[in-house]
Design brief:
Elements: H1 7-27, H2 32-53, H3 76-94, H4 116-133, H5 135-138, H6 140-151, E1 162-164, H7 174-181, H8 190-198, H9 204-207, H10 235-238, E2 245-248, H11 250-263, H12 267-286, H13 291-297, H14 303-313, H15 319-327, H16 351-356
Antiparallel strand pairs: 1-2
Helix pairs in contact: 1-2, 2-3, 2-4, 3-4, 4-6, 6-11, 11-12, 11-14, 12-13, 12-14, 14-15
Length: about 375
C-alpha cells in the first residue's frame, strides 16, 4: 500500500462531506429534517475516514474550493467528539415537528423515504459504534455503558437497516462490479474459509463459491492460485449487478449490545444478545433463521467469541478490521513470508494532502496504530 492507493477514497469522502455540509449550511434552519440527515451522513463518512487515517480535517474541512483549501487536521479524539456532536444535533433536528420544515424528505431520501424515526435509530447506532470504539480510552465499563445506552435506542429490526441499493445498470453493486471487472484479482482467504468449514457454518455457500475440486477452499498467503482453483466471492455480496450491500444493521447493533453487556459483567444478557446477533446474520445472509446454529455459536460468552462471530457476520464491511485493531480478535498470524511480518494498522496520508496541505498531519508508517487503538 502506498500514499497513492487511496486518493480516490479520500476524495470521494470529502466531496460527499462538502455536498452534505452545503445542505446543513443552506437548509438546516428552515428544513431541519434535511439538516439532520445530512449531519448523520457527514458523521458516518468522517467516522470511516478517521478509522483508517487517524487525524483528519473535520472542523475546517467543508468550505469547498472557494474557502479554506488547507484545513487543519483535528486529532482523532476531536473528530470522534465532533461525530457525536453532529449526531446529537441530528437527533434534535429529526425530533422537530413536520410543521417546522418548509420541505420534508420523501422519495429523494433513497435510504428511508423520509422516515425520521429510522434516521434517528441510525444516529443512535452510529453513536453506539463510536462509544465502543473508545474502549481503551474511556475505560471498558464506561465505554460499554455508553454503547449499550445508545444501542437500546437504535435499530430494532431488519427494516431499520441502512442498505446501499443499486439499479444494476450503470449503478452496479460494488463487489459485483469489482469481481466482474477484475476477475481473479481477489479470492477468498484460507483463515476465513477454514473458520466456517470447521463450524459447518450455514453461511459458507452464500459467502463463497466452491473451489475447483467441489470443496470450499481459501487461498493461504503466498500460495499459488489460478482461476477456479480456490473459492471466490459468493452470491451474498457479489451475486449480480443489483445485489444490495448492508452498511449498518440490526446484526451489528446486537453485537455491540453483546460486547457491552459482557464488559459490564452481564453474562446472561450478553449471551442473549450474541445469539440474537448470530441469528440476525443468518437471516441476512441465508434468508432463514437457524436458532439451533445460533445457540451453538453463542455458547461461549467470551470477548474472543463475540468479536470472532462479529467478524463472520459483518464480513465485507469495515467493522471487523476496526474490532481487530481495538481488541486483537480474531487471533490472526501475519504473513510470515512478508517483509514486515506485521498486519497493517492504518492507511497512509494521501499524497495530495502531503504535498498540497501544509497543515496535514502526515503519517508514512502503515503499521502505526490510530489513537483509539492504543492504550492510555
Amino acid at each position: 500500500m502506498t500514499e497513492l492507493d487511496n486518493e480516490g477514497d479520500w476524495g470521494n469522502i470529502y466531496q460527499a462531506g462538502v455536498n452534505a455540509n452545503t445542505i446543513i449550511k443552506d437548509y438546516e434552519a428552515t428544513s431541519p429534517y434535511y439538516g439532520g440527515i445530512a449531519r448523520i451522513l457527514v458523521a458516518l463518512n468522517m467516522g470511516i475516514a478517521t478509522d483508517i487515517w487517524g487525524d483528519i480535517p473535520f472542523s475546517e474541512a467543508f468550505a469547498g474550493v472557494e474557502g479554506n483549501v488547507t484545513p487543519k487536521y483535528d486529532t482523532q479524539k476531536e473528530v470522534i467528539e465532533r461525530i457525536q456532536s453532529y449526531l446529537d444535533l441530528a437527533i434534535l433536528d429529526l425530533a422537530k415537528p413536520a410543521s417546522a420544515n418548509l420541505s420534508v424528505p420523501k422519495t429523494d431520501d433513497i435510504f428511508y423515504g423520509g422516515n425520521t424515526e429510522k434516521w434517528t435509530k441510525l444516529a443512535y447506532a452510529i453513536k453506539a459504534r463510536y462509544a465502543l470504539r473508545l474502549t481503551t480510552k474511556d475505560g471498558s465499563a464506561v465505554a460499554a455503558q455508553k454503547a449499550l445506552t445508545y444501542a437500546q435506542k437504535s435499530i430494532t429490526s431488519k427494516a431499520d437497516n441502512l442498505v446501499a441499493t443499486f439499479d444494476g445498470g450503470n449503478n452496479q453493486s460494488t463487489w459485483y462490479a469489482f469481481n466482474n471487472q477484475r476477475a481473479g484479482y481477489m479470492g477468498m482467504g484460507k483463515f476465513f474459509i477454514d473458520l466456517l468449514n470447521a463450524n459447518s457454518d450455514p453461511r459458507l455457500p452464500f459467502y463463497a463459491t466452491e473451489a475447483e475440486d467441489g470443496t470450499y477452499d481459501g487461498a493461504a498467503p503466498e500460495s499459488p492460485d489460478g482461476s477456479g482453483l480456490k473459492s471466490r466471492f459468493g452470491d451474498y455480496f457479489a451475486g449480480d449487478p443489483a445485489t444490495p450491500l448492508n452498511i449498518i444493521t440490526l446484526t451489528e447493533v446486537k453485537f455491540i449490545e453483546a460486547e457491552a453487556q459482557f464488559r459490564l459483567g452481564n453474562i446472561a444478557a450478553a449471551q442473549t444478545a450474541l445469539q440474537a446477533a448470530v441469528n440476525s446474520s443468518l437471516i441476512d445472509v441465508t434468508g432463514t433463521s437457524n436458532a439451533t446454529y445460533a445457540a451453538t455459536a453463542s455458547a461461549a460468552v467470551t470477548l474472543q467469541n463475540i468479536i470472532t462471530q462479529k467478524y463472520i457476520a459483518l464480513f465485507t464491511t469495515f467493522e471487523p478490521y476496526n474490532d481487530f485493531r481495538r481488541t486483537g480478535f480474531p487471533a490472526l498470524t501475519p504473513n510470515q513470508a512478508s517483509q514486515s511480518k506485521k498486519i497493517p494498522a492504518r492507511l497512509l496520508t494521501p499524497k495530495s494532502e502531503r504535498t498540497l496541505n501544509n497543515n496535514a498531519t502526515v503519517v508514512s508508517d502503515i503499521y502505526a496504530p490510530v489513537w483509539w487503538a492504543t492504550p492510555n
